[in-house]
């Protein structure tokens, strides 16, 4: 029953009272919801989480599981984006990776080949059942092996990819070592696929271990988990795995609803799909805000990977991630900035020791140099159709951000940094030492000082 007092309060309440209509930002947000592969700025976000707050997420495995699941339309299954309090278009969000824990007990991966009669234009985005012709058909896992993924309607093999060389890997529960297993081990894992993959309850992907590949046997690999997907929501709807200049190039003139022009791709993408192995526990990412709230999303955790991800795929796993997020006001970025762990920096970009600084001052005194720069390392992410295009993109972004000429950026990267491959064919970082005065002018000094000083 509504009392007279309540009716009076309602009558005197402003119609557009934001304090009533807007949800209250939380200090810690737990995320266990996933998108269907499309990052859409029009879709409602989770949260908001407070500026300075924490996001804890149970993430799904990345590439292969979603690639075997036609109802996932983007090639990955990332978390539903999170609205960060106070983040406005033209700002940046600082994301610090507090912890990454692998929960999968096994995974499978390998080099892929698209099957031509099972998609239209793009096997990551527009899958077609070769039997009944349905687009994005629902599927079931029927048995194990390469033929296990089948259309729910007509029981035709429907997975748009096959492995040309694949492996199943058991993972040490201490998080140190992975080992590829033989045919019987792969079969054992495939028969209990979801349990071994530890896919979250709300995940809809078909587990890749159901394919039971075993071309590599007895190969040891060191585990060092990282996030292949970490970033903010693009300002136009696009498939999640295509939120980068190399994969995004598949969208240019594509024969499906997510077609882009090159100019649109360059404007709207946020390069959240990086596959840079240095995006691991302890690292910090500064990401552009191109939609209100930023829309932070997470996914595609890998157990290990060398630079380049040259096979096209690595060991996709489920896991628990803890992030801290904070807003940098009026820092308009075209793409992400990575602040790796110090041990992951190139030798030439590592912070200078007190002794090195002392020797530099001696040289300055000898040759009449009035002041030695105080510098900090920064890695600018660039993406493009090729590695050359990605390098050019990163250099251009750095020049604009730091108000330098591109030749100056190239000189500094040559003697105080390095060009490092994230993903072949088109993700790189241009790392170099940047003067403190320049970082302050660009409004990004504080998180960099916190990371390295």
Spans of at least 5 consecutive residues with low confidence: 1-20
- What is the CA–CA distance across the termini? 61 Å
Structural class: alpha+beta
How many structurally independent domains?
3
* Beta content: 25-35%
Largest sheet: 12 strands, mixed
| Overall strand count | 20
What is the helical fraction, as a range of percent?
Answer: 10-25%
CATH class of the largest domain: Mainly Beta
Q: Could you say what the CATH architecture of the largest domain is?
A: Sandwich
Structure description:
By secondary structure, the chain is of the alpha+beta class. The protein has three domains: 27-104 and 229-339, Jelly Rolls (Sandwich), CATH 2.60.120; 106-222, no CATH class; 342-452, no CATH class. Helices cover 20% and strands 28% of the residues. The chain has helices at residues 4-11, 18-21, 64-67, 183-190, 193-197, 262-268, 354-367, 387-402, 406-416, 436-441, 445-452; strands at residues 26-31, 38-39, 46-59, 82-84, 92-102, 106-114, 139-141, 149-151, 161-171, 177-180, 220-222, 226-231, 238-239, 284-288, 294-302, 319-328, 337-339, 375-383, 418-423, 427-435. The strands form four sheets. Strands 1, 3, 4, 5, 12, 14, 15, 16, 17, 18, 19 and 20 form a twelve-stranded mixed sheet that branches. The protein has a four-stranded antiparallel sheet with strand order 6-9-10-11, covered by helices on one side. The protein has a two-stranded antiparallel ribbon with strand order 2-13. β3, α3 (64-67) and β4 form a beta-alpha-beta unit. The radius of gyration is 24 Å and the shape is globular. Residues 1-21 are annotated as: Disordered.
């Amino acid at each position: 029953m509504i009392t007279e007092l309540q009716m009076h309060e309602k009558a005197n309440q402003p119609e557009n009272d934001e304090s009533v209509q807007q949800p209250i930002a939380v200090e810690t947000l737990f995320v266990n919801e996933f998108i269907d592969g499309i990052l859409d700025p029009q879709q409602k976000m989770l949260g908001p989480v407070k500026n300075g707050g924490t996001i804890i997420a149970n993430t799904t495995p990345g590439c292969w599981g979603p690639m075997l699941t036609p109802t996932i339309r983007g090639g990955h299954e990332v978390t539903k984006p999170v609205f960060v309090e106070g983040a406005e278009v033209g700002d940046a969000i600082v994301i610090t990776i507090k912890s990454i824990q692998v929960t999968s007990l096994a995974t499978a991966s390998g080099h892929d080949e698209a099957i031509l009669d099972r998609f239209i234009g793009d096997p990551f985005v527009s899958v077609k059942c070769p039997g009944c012709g349905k687009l994005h058909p629902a599927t079931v896992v029927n048995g194990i092996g390469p033929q296990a993924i089948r259309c729910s309607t007509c029981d035709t093999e429907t997975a748009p990819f096959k492995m040309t060389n694949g492996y199943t890997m058991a993972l040490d529960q201490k998080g140190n070592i992975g080992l590829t297993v033989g045919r019987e081990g792969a079969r054992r894992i495939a028969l209990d696929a979801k349990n071994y993959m530890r896919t979250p309850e709300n995940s809809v992907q078909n587990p890749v271990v159901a394919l039971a590949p075993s071309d590599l046997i007895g190969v040891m690999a060191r585990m060092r988990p990282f996030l292949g997907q970490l970033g903010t929501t693009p300002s136009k709807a696009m498939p999640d795995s295509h939120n980068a200049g190399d994969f995004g190039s598949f969208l240019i003139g594509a024969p499906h609803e997510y077609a882009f022009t090159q100019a649109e791709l360059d404007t709207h993408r946020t390069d959240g799909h990086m596959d840079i192995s240095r995006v691991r526990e302890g690292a910090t990412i500064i990401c552009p805000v191109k939609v209100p709230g930023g829309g932070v999303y997470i996914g595609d955790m890998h157990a290990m990977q060398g630079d380049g991800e040259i096979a096209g795929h690595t060991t996709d796993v489920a896991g628990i991630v803890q992030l801290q997020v904070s807003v940098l006001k009026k820092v308009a970025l075209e793409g992400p900035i990575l602040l790796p762990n110090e041990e992951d920096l190139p030798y030439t970009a590592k912070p200078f020791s007190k002794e090195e600084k002392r020797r530099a001052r001696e040289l300055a005194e000898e040759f009449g140099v009035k002041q030695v720069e105080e510098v900090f390392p920064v890695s600018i992410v660039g993406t493009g159709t090729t590695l050359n295009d990605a390098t050019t993109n990163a250099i251009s972004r750095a020049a604009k951000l730091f108000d330098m000429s591109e030749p100056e950026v190239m000189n500094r990267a040559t003697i105080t940094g390095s060009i490092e491959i994230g993903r072949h064919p088109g993700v790189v970082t241009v790392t170099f030492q940047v003067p403190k005065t320049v970082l302050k002018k660009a409004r990004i000094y504080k998180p960099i000082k916190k990371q390295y000083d």
